[in-house]
Specification:
Number of helices: 5
Number of domains: 1
Strand content: 25-35%
Largest sheet: 4 strands, antiparallel
CATH architecture: 2-Layer Sandwich
CATH superfamily: Ribosomal protein S6/Translation elongation factor EF1B
Shape: elongated
CATH topology: Alpha-Beta Plaits
Radius of gyration: 24 Å
Order of helices and strands: EHEEHEHHH
CATH class: Alpha Beta
Length: about 140
């Protein structure tokens, strides 16, 4: 059987529970077709680069699939018909990666960075009022 990485985007207005139900529904299609679904990663609600069917955000989900081609085709057909699925992409791969995907690693890195200090968010390291000293000098010139 072939190995696939499958990512799909679900509408922003459905809940995380409904996304899990979609994953279970698509898992069932794969297992009925003689395949298996390995790792499933929920990447969460993320902003889209452009609007897709009037949605600015979407729930991203990655599935590692080992299945025959007809099972994957049937899952994609069901996704095309489902109104909550905005987009999907299936890639055939040589092997599945066992560790976290790059998207999950990036999220962990971002979470750690936020925990350090919020001085950049507060604007504490901006260098102050850059034009203030020159403006003060110009105002004082007219008084002398």
């Amino acid at each position: 059987m072939a190995l696939y990485e499958h990512v799909f985007l679900a509408r922003q207005d459905i809940s995380a529970q409904q996304v899990e139900q979609l994953v279970e529904q698509f898992k069932t299609i794969i297992t009925d077709g003689g395949g298996t679904v390995g790792k499933v990663e929920n990447w969460g609600l993320r902003t889209l680069a452009y609007r897709v069917h009037k949605n600015r955000k979407a729930h991203y989900t990655l599935m590692n699939i080992e299945a025959p081609y007809p099972a994957v085709v049937e899952m994609e057909r069901q996704m095309r018909l489902h109104e909550d699925v905005l987009r999907f992409l299936t890639l055939k791969v040589d092997k599945h990666e066992e560790e976290q995907s790059a998207m999950m690693q990036k999220r962990d890195r971002d979470d750690r960075r936020r925990g350090r200090s919020d001085r950049f968010e507060r604007g504490g390291d901006r260098g102050g009022d850059r034009g203030g000293a020159r403006r003060q000098d110009r105002e004082n010139e007219g008084k002398n």
